[in-house]
Design a protein that fits this description.
With 470 residues, this protein is of the alpha/beta class. It is built from 14 helices and 16 strands. The chain has a nine-stranded mixed β-sheet, covered by helices on one side. The protein starts with 17 loop residues before the first helix and ends with a helix.
């Protein structure tokens, strides 16, 4: 899985004003996007690696169309990620399309993949270049070929030598870009939060005292969050859209939907962009929360919940941060006797998965140990309720209510019996105000489909819920 992208600590102001970002969130648009290129015939993104087959990469025409779509919804900047051992044969064509769209361009690539001819073409197009690894020879060569904006990506695995490398790059007028530590991204799981905080504090001091460079947020904790999701996204080489490189939840594909629709309908982006009310403790009430919402990538990697508190932050070291799967009690208003779901297992883009083991004392089980088929509908409805409750705060959950108002296209394939472990999947298809349409499936743990159907639900507003609850 290719995780390389802009996941670096924010050491310089973003090239957009606060007003730009606020307007971008309001229109569910973009100011920047990452575009992954690949020389391989098939994609290596998280979704392709998890599937049975890998998708064919986008054609040049498809790439150009995506660029035009991004421009239409406000993009001004593009990071082209082309980190293979050799650059994509279509790179120059892609850069020309980006130039025609008047987008500022950065290229993330390996230094030895950029030959002298390509370096000159990059310089002629004023493309900023960020080397994915420290390569002194390539830095010298690219500088000689006229590339004015050079950067090098650094990683916490280099922790003991980071201050020395940092100084050397600054003295050479090269921008150091330190990736936010991610336990599954660069084998940095053995580092402690305090070690990382200490070295970031030292880098802040070096920049301030030795180079007169002030970071936008001079806090080693807030620096863990570049908050890029507010105005950017990532498009993999197959067209799958993600919130960022380190948050591998697929939000849609530009092959089947427009980029505008993917972003405007994304629950993941909506929740992260509403981070002040959606991101969970201890991030939500942290004193740094105005300028930081933690690393969403680290939170997802360690807990399965992209809205969880950031477990890799020093301020969260003593906090209790829940990891999926979690018991359903407290996420739904149903009492134990009518609860048809045990655990919330995973959450995704308008999707959730739960599990249920059929108990012998269930009121839906007959004397032969067979589960009544009507229970499948309740499993789907309660799974939807659980996914909604999971994204609520502890203060909001007492008002969590809903009503099943319709069932459509219900298909019963097989029956479950006592002791069977079931997996329920739900997909929020659409919503109209307080009403929603949800597709659901129930599978046996051995993979057999037991039931599938669509439900319509009504979820009251907080004011309506207060009137309903005694």
């Amino acid at each position: 899985m290719n995780l390389l992208g802009d996941t670096s600590i924010l050491t310089r102001p973003i090239p957009f004003s606060t007003e730009d970002v606020v307007a971008c969130i309001a229109r569910t648009g973009l100011l920047s996007f990452e575009l992954q290129l690949s020389n391989a015939a098939h994609c290596d993104c998280a979704t392709c690696e998890a599937g049975l087959t890998r998708e064919v990469v986008l054609s040049l025409d498809e790439i150009c169309d995506v660029i035009r779509q991004a421009k239409e919804i406000g993009a001004r900047h593009c990071i082209v990620v082309d980190s293979g051992t050799s650059l994509n044969a279509r790179l120059v064509n892609v850069l020309d399309e980006l130039n025609r769209s008047s987008l500022d361009v950065e290229l993330y690539a390996a230094g030895d993949a950029i030959d002298d001819t390509m370096a000159e073409q990059l310089a002629a197009r004023d493309v900023a270049v960020s080397l994915v690894e420290l390569d002194e020879l390539s830095l010298a060569r690219l500088t000689k070929r006229g590339i004015r904006r050079l950067a090098v990506q650094l990683y916490f695995r280099q922790i003991s030598s980071l201050p020395a490398i940092w100084r050397r790059l600054r003295n050479s007028s090269v921008e150091p870009q330190l990736h936010i530590a991610h336990p599954k991204m660069y084998d940095e799981g053995d580092l402690t939060a305090s070690q990382m905080s200490h070295v970031v504090t030292e880098l802040i001091r070096i920049d301030r005292d030795e180079f007169r460079i002030s970071w936008p947020v001079e806090s080693p904790h807030a620096a863990r969050s570049n908050m890029r999701h507010r105005y950017a996204c990532r498009i993999a080489s197959c067209g799958t859209v993600y919130a960022s490189a380190d948050l591998p939840i697929p939000m849609g594909s530009v092959r089947t939907e427009t980029l505008r629709d993917i972003l405007s309908l994304s629950e993941v982006l909506e929740n992260i962009r509403d981070y002040r009310t959606k991101v969970k403790e201890p991030c939500r009430t942290c004193s740094q929360s105005v300028d930081c919402y933690g690393s969403r990538g680290a939170a997802y990697a360690l807990t399965g919940d992209y809205l969880a508190g950031d477990p890799f932050c020093e301020r969260a070291e003593s906090a209790e941060i829940a990891s999926l799967s979690v018991p359903i009690a407290g996420l739904v208003p149903h009492g134990r006797s009518i609860r048809m779901v045990d655990e919330l297992v995973a959450v995704g883009e308008r999707r959730a998965w739960t599990s249920y083991t059929v108990p012998a004392d269930s009121q839906f089980v007959d004397e032969m140990g067979r589960l009544d088929e009507t229970a499948y509908v309740e499993m789907i409805a309660q799974s939807f309720a659980a996914s909604h409750g999971f994204h609520m705060s502890a203060d909001e959950r007492p008002l969590h209510r809903g009503l099943l108002i319709g069932i459509k296209d219900l298909t019963i394939v097989s029956q479950a019996v006592v002791g069977d472990r079931l997996r329920i999947g739900v997909h929020k298809v659409t919503r109209f105000g307080d009403f929603g349409v949800v597709d659901g499936t129930v599978h046996h743990e051995d993979g057999r489909l037991l039931a599938a159907g669509q439900i319509k639900v009504w979820r009251p507003s907080d004011e309506q819920a207060k009137a309903i609850i005694p």
